[in-house]
Amino acid sequence: DQQVKQNSPSLSVQEGRISILNCDYTNSMFDYFLWYKKYPAEGPTFLISISSIKDKNEDGRFTVFLNKSAKHLSLHIVPSQPGDSAVYFCAASWAGTASKLTFGTGTRLQVTL
Amino acid sequence: EAGVAQSPRYKIIEKRQSVAFWCNPISGHATLYWYQQILGQGPKLLIQFQNNGVVDDSQLPKDRFSAERLKGVDSTLKIQPAKLEDSAVYLCASSLQGRYQETQYFGPGTRLLVL
Fold it and tell me: Which residues in chain A have their CB less than 8 angstroms from residue B107's CB?
């Protein structure tokens, strides 16, 4: 049972343009969402998070949007840079399971020159 | 500040052999996690420790996988005997107290190939 889904395995975007990565979840208990970024041969690194009390959180070039009614979140990267090329994982948790994270399958982003 | 350390980085074994992975979390982090990431999938939590006690091992295949964190610092994950489907990257992560909304920091992982 895949509770967190990233339906696009890959995405290619030109440098300078906007990258939009999508994530859907099925478990209505989830109330905290995170994005992790992973380079080859490295572990995932935390990028940005959002609590369900908000619908938007911004950190520099990265913005995460949450649509609770649709059980959907998205990560926007503006402008995209070649160094953003990586695999992006969406993850979710809820207070009842403390720090336990449920991850999506990841989206590979390639930013081209 | 040193990050999460893992060794070995790569391991190739034959099925039915045993293998062990080691993890040293960030200094002062009470919570340690082991994840399994199969190719094309997201990380899946295998076991979570709080100091030297197990918090969650609900997804650990206990017939072949075992893990320990005897002194509440570093940890070892063992597979015995290994199966072909155990081929994956094994990621270790740590966090300060394992509280809700706390950031988890990941190590580089150990890539296991079972032939």
Answer: 43
